[in-house]
Amino acid sequence: AQSVSQHNHHVILSEAASLELGCNYSYGGTVNLFWYVQYPGQHLQLLLKYFSGDPLVKGIKGFEAEFIKSKFSFNLRKPSVQWSDTAEYFCAVRGLNTGNQFYFGTGTSLTVIP
Amino acid sequence: DTGVSQDPRHKITKRGQNVTFRCDPISEHNRLYWYRQTLGQGPEFLTYFQNEAQLEKSRLLSDRFSAERPKGSFSTLEIQRTEQGDSAMYLCASSTRTAEGNEQFFGPGTRLTVL
Fold it and tell me: What pLDDT score does A6 carry?
């Protein structure tokens, strides 16, 4: 079965600091990769996605992620975080040959201190 | 609001009771998913519909759980004889196939508390 690992469970940063959240998955075939964000009191929203092509994908609010196939990784980055980025971040993967199940990581809670 | 909606948003029930949740997907989306999320965890896949057909079910979906999507639009998730371990957030998502792939849009969830 597929699995997704998010190494950082809780991250605390000051505003303007750079962010990198790790995501590794276990699946040997072709994948679709996603980062979702859940702001306090709100539902899950898509930050960015990778389906194919350029492994560096850009999403909303200045976020980007890089797919490194050899490392089975899809790390999320932002050069300068803001207080409003305080949220829970989830990495998700869908293996294209394993049906339509999406597998989510356990999430990373980000707190940005003003 | 044209997003995914779920009803109710909160449900408190006593152990042993049956509960039913409803999900209304984005109108043009033919794919619908149910997930369960517990504290400190990511969403766990429960089941998937394409139109009215239930095509995939997780092993997490015990025989006390049943989901339907009778007309290929809204869906219901029923839990019979609820147990305290069923307490969780139940999420619904919908999607449609695009040239790029399959992106899911999530609803706000139904929080179930079993006393």
Answer: 95
